[in-house]
Each structure stands twice: as C-alpha cells, then as structure tokens.
C-alpha cells in the first residue's frame, strides 16, 4: 500500500484557492524532493511544480498531472475554501504514484515528469504551466478525475473522459438614464439586456450537435423604481461537446448581443472569460489507460469512454501543444452528492486504485 491516504488527510485540511496553493505546493515539492526527484518550483511565477526522474537511458518523456486548488464557497455569508472537486485526492494519488515509482525502480528508460498545477477552477492554471515551459519536452501527458456516483461507481474506471468545451461571456450594457415619467429621453439598459438574452436564446446550431447556451447572471438596478436604468450586466454560460461548434457558438453569441442592444440604441462591452477546450485524447494513450484499469479492476471494472458536459482545463495542454499525446481518465469513487457541492464526499479507498492504475501506465511506457 502507498501512503496516498496520509497525503490526502493532510491536503484536505489545507484547502487553498487558485494561484494561492502555497502550503499545498510546499508540501508536494518537499515530498518529491525527499523521494529523489529533481523539483522546479514556482513555474511561470505561480505555485506550479514540475518534478523529474531521469532514467539515464533514451526513451519517451511521460508526464502525470494533478490539480491542486480548492473551490471557494459562501458558507453562512463567509467565503470558505473547500476541496469539493477532489483535487486533494488527485494530488495525493499522483504524489503517491511518484513515490512508488521511484521506490520500485519502475522507470527504466526515458524520463518521468510530475506536474502539480494550480488554478484549474479558474481555467488558467494549465495555460500558466504551458507558458512556463512545463510541456516543452513532454511526449505523453496523463491526467484523471474522481467521478460522481451516478456516472461511475466505486470499482470501475473510465478510460477516457470526454469533457465539453465551455466559455463564460460577460456583457456590460450601457444605455442612458432618464426619469421613468420621460422614458423617451433615455435608453433603458434593462430592456436592452432582455433583448440580448432573447437574441441569444434564438441562436441555433446544427441539431445533431450537443451544445447549450443560457444566461446565468442578470444584474440591473437604477437604485430607485422611478428611473430608467443605464447599466445592466449579463453573463452567459456556453458549452459544446466539440471545439469547432464552440467557435461557431461563441461568434454567434457575440454578434447577437452586440446587434440586439444596438437596435435599442445601447452599447455592450463584451468579454469572453474562462474558456476551456473540449477533450482531446489520443487513442494510443486511452488504450494504455484501459489496459492498466483492467489489470487493476478486471474487465468488469472498465467502462466505455464517457461524455460529460462539464469542463476541465487539462485540455488546454493538447490544444496548446498538439504534438503531445494526452489521456484523461475517470476514477469511480462513489462520490456524492456531486462535484462542487459544499458537502461532497467520496470513498477514500478509491485513491489506492488510482495509484495502481497510474503505476501500470508508467510501467507500460517507461518500464
């Protein structure tokens, strides 16, 4: 047995938000150095870590990636960091795998790199790691995520999680204030914002595609009830199973907002934030993961690849570095009541399964 539970119990008690994972990264870096890895801290000026184990013999460069950050929840009116997406479990599994790999002498050719990435929840942590050169010499990159119970129960694992592309569009719509008794002298930002929501709701992509767009925030208040408001803020959530339709959807949304508010004389300052690409996985890497899962859980433990409307910033890696072969799998852990729920829980025995699957993957590539 590895010491993954020891790591988890410590990391679970020190949740930290994106790019603020100071205690978390210090713990991980020290453990990797003590295990015998060459560790580089503060990748690209962040809390990111890259550790390396060189066999001294020619071969591919394989990397395992885990995210470190927690989520911010409003609990009784106060912002509180909590590990409600399982990143503490991910870090524990990858750290324990790294320790086991060096203890057992598994790497006999090429190099193994361990990436601990900040700020997955912000959607910018992977980009920061890429910009910091973490993938410059990597041939193959693997990541994983614990899965909700209804998607994958304990004792099973998914060889490829096919995440969706997502984006957040924010618009600040500006009109002209006026007294409600004389609305013709103003431009009602609330009306313009409603028109924008309706215009976006009228967008259509091909019906055989899986996609969605919906308004998720609407803020408008003149401060009094007898004035025409001049400012409104609206957010939309965009999702698509594939990257190309997301590009089309995003372009249509931006045009719909701009033209609909202009028709009423208002203007819109529009920004696209927290973009994450759809899954890009290599069949070769997925096959390695599938074989490793079967060796640990048996044939009955292997599911088919699964599509999820959720998103994951891991896929910035292959989008930015298409030459890198990537694989991303899902670990069944009886996770309830759901990811990002403030009371999320999962079966901790699943973490050891994660270590065993990752170890098998490393053996197949670098053993």
UniProtKB/TrEMBL annotation:
It comes from the Bacteria. Keywords: Hydrolase. The keyword Hydrolase applies. Residues 167-259 form the Peptidase M20 dimerisation domain. InterPro entries: AmhX-like, Amidohydrolase, Bact_exopeptidase_dim_dom, Peptidase_M20, Peptidase_M20/M20A_hydrolases, Peptidase_M20_dimer. It holds the Pfam family M20_dimer. This is M20 peptidase aminoacylase family protein.
């Amino acid at each position: 047995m590895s010491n993954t539970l020891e790591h988890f119990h410590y990391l679970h008690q020190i949740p930290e938000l994106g790019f603020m994972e100071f205690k978390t990264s210090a713990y991980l870096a020290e453990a990797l150095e003590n295990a015998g890895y060459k560790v580089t801290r503060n990748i690209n000026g962040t809390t990111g870590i890259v550790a390396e184990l060189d066999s001294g013999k020619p071969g591919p460069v394989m990397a395992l990636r885990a995210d470190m950050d927690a989520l911010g929840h409003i609990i009784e009116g106060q912002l509180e960091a909590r590990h409600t997406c399982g990143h503490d479990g991910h870090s524990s599994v990858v750290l324990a795998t790294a320790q086991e790999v060096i203890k057992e002498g598994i790497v006999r050719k090429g190099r193994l790199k361990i990436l601990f990435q900040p700020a997955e929840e912000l959607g910018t942590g992977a980009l920061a790691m890429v910009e910091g050169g973490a993938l410059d010499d990597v041939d193959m990159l693997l990541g994983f995520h614990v899965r909700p119970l209804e998607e994958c129960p304990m004792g099973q694992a998914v060889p490829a999680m096919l995440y969706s592309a997502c984006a957040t569009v924010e618009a600040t719509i500006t009109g002209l204030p006026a007294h409600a008794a004389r609305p013709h002298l103003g431009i009602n930002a609330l009306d313009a914002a409603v028109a924008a929501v309706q215009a976006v709701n009228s967008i259509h992509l091909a019906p055989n595609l899986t996609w969605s767009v919906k308004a998720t925030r609407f803020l408008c208040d003149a401060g009094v009830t007898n004035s025409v408001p001049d400012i409104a803020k609206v957010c939309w959530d965009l999702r698509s199973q594939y990257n190309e339709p997301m590009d089309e959807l995003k372009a249509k949304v931006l045009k719909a907002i701009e033209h609909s508010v202009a028709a009423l004389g208002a203007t819109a300052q529009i920004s696209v934030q927290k973009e994450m690409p759809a899954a890009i996985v290599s069949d070769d890497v997925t096959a390695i993961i599938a074989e490793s899962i079967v060796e640990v859980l048996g044939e009955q433990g292997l599911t088919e690849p699964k599509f999820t409307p959720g998103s994951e910033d891991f896929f910035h890696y292959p989008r930015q570095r298409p030459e890198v072969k990537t694989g991303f799998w899902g670990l069944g852990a009886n996770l309830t009541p759901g990811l990002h729920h403030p009371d999320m829980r999962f079966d901790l025995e699943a973490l050891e399964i994660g270590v065993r699957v990752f170890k098998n993957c490393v053996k197949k590539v670098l053993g």
